[in-house]
Structures are given as structure tokens and as C-alpha cells.
Amino acid sequence: MPAHDGERSPEIHDAAVEVPTSIFKRKWLRVTLTALKDQWFLISLGLLIAIASQVQVPTTHQHVKEITVTYLCVSIIFFITGCTLDTRTLLQNYGRWKILLFVQLQCFLMTSAVVFGLVSAVATDGSHFMDPGLLVGLLFFSCVPTTISSNVVMTRQAHGNQALTVVQTTVGNFLGVFITPALVVMYTSVDTWYNRVLPSSSNHFAQIYRRVLMQLGLSIYLPLIVGQLVRYLFPQTSKRIFVEWKLNRIASIALLLIIWQTYDQAFASRAFASVPSTNMIFIVFVGVGLWILFFGIAFTTSLAWLPKKDVVAICYCVPAKGPAMGVPLATTIFAGLDTGLASKVQIPIVIYQGLQLVFGSILIGIFRRWIEKDEQRKAMEDVPAAPQAAQCHESHSPTKLEAV
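Predicted structure:
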């Protein structure tokens, strides 16, 4: 029986309900897939940390695992970077000494001064609330140079100036070999109750320089130079492999392996279990606050005088601290410490690494949209210029009658 006027057929009503529902499902699926695509690194990071907390490499193989992962994975990252970066652009960024000075002063002096003030404030209450090893670890992590690989990978993903990040990373870690031990000695020489846990003869600078410079040369500079040679000799092949085939994502996988080995080592040494839960919560909250503060300073000071792509690079370099360089430095600087105390000293930088990767992963999509909007705006401004110029040329060009 046909429906009366003013009434809707049940079939039509069901169809009207089904269409919006299907549209909503497709939209939800698209949003979910986009989120998974943008945050796959963060999800993988969480899974790897969870795995490291449950299953660790045997203690007898920890040193071999550390050396293999650190050298191999960092070398892969910088080889791929060398194959994909324009040599002229890289050299130009090495010549930007004002930005180099601007970034390195923040990475070493600003961050260490802020943390020293924080530790001094925490340690003056007389209650010894915090474990002394953690307080020394906070001082140590503030003196460490920027991370070696994560900021390079994330700057590229966020469409920032990757060449500038490579320059800041290589220069910062080279300077860190000399600056970090000096800063650590300066801050730990202050006569405080938490510094008294350290032995007086814990600094062997010759050993520090030899070990860290060898790691820098073999895992950063040599792969970067080889990558640049491959790019120069086989430019089209390099572009096809790493850009068109997107094999540069191997660098992200290598970075995940570096993070896994750091947390695997921390859990294997039972470092987290030896610290009170209240201290761990304090370190986490302090790490969040410090990252936000360092990021805010880097962003506001660089936005005032630098292009947006440079701002992105600086925002990934300044707040970051590198355990890949920091852990070997800690092992060498604090040689002679018992295993438990040495593990506590490394806890702040390991926790901070996880926090900076979480924040950095979240910022990838935000920075990418920020850069793309700026590029689209510039493109829109350039489009009307061509027709206007052509029209202007046409109006001023003589007609055939005028020519005659």
C-alpha cells in the first residue's frame, strides 16, 4: 500500500539512516588510518618499551648488543642522511655560525644551568627525599649534547631543515666530548650531600676522548661522507631508492632499535627497581616540565629571526638529549661506581629519552601542517604574479598597427 501524504516509507527512512551511518563509518576509518600513519612511530615505541620491560638480553651479551646496535643503527641513519641531503645545502648550513652558536649555547649552558638550579632547590630541603644517584643523573643529563639520530629522523618527517639538524647534531656531539665532562666536573665538584656518593678519581679524560671520538668517527662522520659520495656518484639511483621507493624509512626502524637497546639495558640492570616509586614519579614530572621549558625557549627565541623550517630543526635539537652518546659518557666519566649507583645515574636520561620521543612524535604532524600551510600560502601568492606579468607585458607590447 503506498504511503499517505506526510508519511515516509519505512524503506526510505531506513535508507536515510543508513547513508549517514556509512558516511560516519568511512570518516572514522579514514581518521583512524591517518592517526595510525602519523603516529606509527609512537605506537612502535610503546610496544618496544613494553617488550624491553618483560624480556631482556642476557647480561653476558649486553655489551655486544650495545656496541652492535649503537654503531650499526647510527651508521645506517647517517648513511641514509648522506644519500638524501644535497651537499651544497649541507655545507651552507655548516657555514651558518650564528645559528651554531645559538643552538649549542642553549644545548649545553642553558639546559645545564636550569637543571643545576632545580637540583640545588630540591637538595636544600634537608630531608634527602631524592636518591643522590638520581640528582647526579639529572646534572649529568643536562650536560649531554643533543641526540644523534632521533632529531634528524623527526626533522625530516616534519618537513623541517634536515641539513641544519645534521649540522647541529654532528657539531654538538663533537663538542660534547670536551664540554660535557668539563660541565659535569664543574657541577659535581660543588660540596653537597648528593655529590659525596661519587669517588674523587672518577674522571679519565683521555679514555673519554678516545672512546667517544672513535664512536663519532665510525658511526656518524664516516657514514655521512660515504653517503654523500654515493649521492654524488649515483644521484638518480639514490633518489629512486631512498625517495621514490621510500627506503629512507629504514632510518626510523634503526632509531627504534637504538631506543629498544637503551631501555633493554636499563631494565636488565634493574635500575628502575632500585629506585623508590616516588622518586621515579618525580623524575617523570621533572622531565616533562624541563622538556616543555626547553622547547618553549627554543621556539620563541628562534621564531623571532629564523624561517619556519629552521625553527623546526632547532626545536628538535635544543630540548633533546642523546643517550646514545650520554650512556657511554656516563660509563666513562663515572668509572669506578658500583653497578647500582651507575644505573641510577643513567635513569634520568633514559626516562627523558622516552618523553622527548613522545613529544617529538606528536609534533611531527603539527609541524608538518605548519610548514605545508606556509608553503601553500607562498604558492598562492606567486600564482597571480605570472598572469599579471603576462597581462602587463601584453598591454605594453606594440600591436601590428602600431608597429606599422
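Summary: The two ends are 83 Å apart (CA to CA).
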